[in-house]
Amino acid sequence: MPPKMIETVTFPEAGMFIQAPLICSGNEKENLGQIIRALRKEKGISQEELARKTQMDRTTIARVECGIIKTLSMGRLEGIARAVGIDLKTLLARVNFEGESASYRGHLNQTAFSLEYPEDGFRIISLTPKQKEFFFGRIEIQPQRTIASAKLPRTEQIYLHLFDGKVLLTRLAKELLLKAGDCFIFSGVSDYEFYNPDPLKSISALFVTYPSFLPV
Question: With 122 labelled, which of 32, 35, 101, 144 sits at a CA distance of 20 to 30 A?
Answer without folding.
Answer: 101
